[in-house]
Amino acid sequence: MYRFLLTRQWVILTLIALLLIPTMIKLGFWQKHRYEERSARNQLVTDALSAKPVPVEQLTSPGHAVTRAERYRSVTATGTFDTSHEVVVRRRVNSDDEVGFHVLTPFRLSDGKVLLVNRGWIPANGVQTAFPKIPAPPAGRTTVTGRLMTDETTAASGIKNIAGLPDRQVMLINSEQETRRLGAQVLGGYIEQTAPESKGGTPQQISDPGKEDAPLNYAYMIQWWLFAAAVPVGWVVLVRRETRDRANAAAGEKTAETEPAVV
């Protein structure tokens, strides 16, 4: 009855089914890993944003690489903005996907070290090769608050660090790069300023980091495993249908053979 399973068509179909099952199970585990990874990141972001602000030098120092656990931590610093060495970061978008610049201003601390402060986003307003007009930060001794961020690299961001840019423009916010440019001790990483707020809303302060959609990966995980379970069920259904069709065809042929010929 099941000799048809040895035909070329059914052998190929069975092999495909046998390959699909472990592949779909593996994809389900991959989505499970992504779900756990994203959930852990979301928890880190939540914990960091809800933590009490601390002085920036408790978490970073010159040459320090900001860790995942330190990223997004709220920090404070007291010093003065150095607008004479201010630069803009090219090709950055705001929440409305408008292309412009991020304003990166060195912030000189009381002990002479420098903290890089991303003051926010401004529109390009014309030719991007020209240095834009930037509203001045608070003058004199100031206390700023912001989210501690890791140094940007090409490998992590995908942004190429192009050479030969117009004066006072950079592609990446990187403390090692700024150490060479400023000739000073620059704290590792940088901060996205959250306070004090900009006068007139310019530069536009960068919004809180959004959470990754971990539940979507969970749904994909369940979906792949359901697909894996459906493959053998579908194979059995096809076999039973084929068996039934062949039995009906055989019965029809037998009936035709036994019926007397009509004269």
Describe it for me?
This protein is α/β, with parallel strands linked by helices and 263 residues long. The chain folds into two domains: 3-42 and 214-245; 50-201. It has four helices and eight strands. It has helices at residues 8-50, 154-157, 175-182, 214-258, and strands at residues 54-55, 74-81, 87-93, 99-109, 114-123, 142-149, 169-170, 190-195. Strands 2-4-5-8-6 form a five-stranded mixed barrel. Strand 4 (99-109) and strand 5 form a beta hairpin. It is elongated and about 115 Å long.
Share of residues in helices? 25-40%
Order of helices and strands: HEEEEEEHEHEH
Rg over CA atoms = 32 Å
Main pleated sheet: 5 strands, mixed, barrel
- Measured by DSSP, the beta-strand proportion falls in 15-25%
Question: Stretches where pLDDT falls below 50 for ≥5 residues?
Answer: none
Please give the domain count. Answer: 2
Number of helices: 4
Report mean pLDDT, rounded to a whole number. Answer: 91
